[in-house]
Amino acid sequence: MRTGKISETVLKRSVLKQITYRSGTLALGPAAGESFGKLALAVGEKAGEKNHLLAASVSVKGNAERAGKRAFYRLANDMAAAGGRLAGMLVNLYLPVADSEPILKTVMRELAQLSSAYQVDVLGGSTEVLEELSEAVISLSGTGFAPVETDVRSGNLEPGFDLVMTKWAGQTGAAELVMGEERSGLRARFSQDFLDQAASGVREMSCAAEAQAAVLYGTAALCSVGGKGVFGSLWEMAEASGTGIRVDLKKIPIRQETIEICEFFDRNPYLIASDGVLLAGTKNGAGLVEHLTARGVPAAVIGTATGGRDRVIVNGDETRFLVPPAPDQR
User: What is the per-residue pLDDT for 45?
Assistant: First the structure.
């Protein structure tokens, strides 16, 4: 396709035709000539049914077959970690010139399937083809709802709170490394079964169910890890809360295949993407772990929130200080 905004013909053929889900709250959906979408926000219809409107945005670049999925789950997980759910989203796509329409169809097909499965309206968006791009960039802006009585956010840590983590560090980041193009030597070092197991990390990218369970338990502080990595998200929780943290590295759950893949690529598994991983701060970490485990969600207490501002990771006799996540991790 030519550079610039896509034509109305391509819009109808490769974008609008893919979107099939429509909820009862969708007042205005995506259409040629429209620059916004509209959701009907019902508040106060019955006592205790008032909602807060949530808003969030994410951007992901990379392989078209997986970038849309990662973007969707990161947006939905951020909403879940706020105690709510994603209801509608704007889709903004920036595509390279080469194979732009096949990429567009691939991304929209994936997003359409996920929006239908999770009952999320596509409100609208835009698509542009840019000469300077070599890979697709997917930017999603979402709105959602959370009950007004639900006060859950990253910045609710208090000194003395236990830090709980679900699932495994770096699993989706390791999967992306395995499925990426820079795989020279992987098959010479690892068996196909090992690589398939490492690549399976992309199947567990949602943390909505455990976030809901944590909210029901009474958890105050939640953070969806996503692209920030475990260390980046721990820093951001502490920074938002104005607390310190002390985490035992050996207690952070991680799979052996993730460790070995990261060693091969010289990557830190605690700094790469951990989509589907949830961090929680609560007064009774052991109780929350039991609550989550009973619902089939693996979880572990990995540390505590502390007074002061020190954010440290302890590994036996060694101690390291956390630093803010890099810009491309946010």
Answer: 44
- What parts of the chain have a pLDDT lower than 70? 2-5, 8, 28, 32-49, 181-184, 326-330
pLDDT at 12: 83
Scored b (16 or more CB within 10 A) or e, 273-307 reads: bbbbbbbbbbebbeebbebbeeeebebbbbbbbbe
**Which residue bears the tokens 């991983």?**
277
Identify which of 146, 121, 164, 148 has the alpha carbon closest to the alpha carbon of residue 24.
121
Q: Angle at the Cα of 258 (from 257 to 262), degrees rounded to 5?
A: 115
Residue 295 has which token pair? Answer: 């619902």
Long-range contacts of range 185-189, CB-CB < 8 Å, 24 or more positions apart? 185/264, 186/264, 189/264
Q: Tell me the two tokens of residue 160.
A: 């003395």
Beta carbons of 186 and 195 less than 8 angstroms apart: yes
Judge contact between 129 and 115, C-beta under 8 A: no
- Which strand ranges, in their side-by-side order, compose the sheet holding 4-5? 4-5, 121-129, 85-95, 136-147, 51-62
pLDDT at 259: 96
pTM equals 0.86
pLDDT in the model for residue 46: 47
Specify whether the CB–CB gap between 237 and 245 falls below 8 A: yes
Determine the Cα–Cα distance for residues 53 and 145; give it in Å rounded to an integer.
5
Sign of CA dihedral 301, 306, 311, 313: negative
Coil, helix or strand for 90?
Answer: strand
- How much is the pLDDT for 326? 67
Quick one: pLDDT at residue 261? Answer: 93
Q: From 137, 154, 189, 177, select the one nearest 271 (Cα to Cα).
A: 177
Hey, which bits of 26-135 come out as E strands?
26-28, 38-39, 51-62, 85-95, 121-129
Query: Taking phi first (over 0 means left), then psi (-120 to 50 degrees means alpha), and beta for anything else, what does residue 291 get?
Result: alpha
